[in-house]
């Protein structure tokens, strides 16, 4: 499951408007046990999520990003 989260994070990083990918990432991250995420923490590239906060995205996208960041 953590591997799927890593793949979705990479996908979010390369898209201009990744709303669907953020929704999928949110679902995946909710299903992954926190200890598994912590084990993979070095591989989780959260920079693209922070970059989206600096861009002009819809409120729904920003809320999803913030929820994902709070999961960590």
TrEMBL record:
GO terms for biological process: proteasome assembly. It holds the Pfam family Proteasom_PSMB. InterPro entries: PSMD5. This is PSMD5 isoform 3.
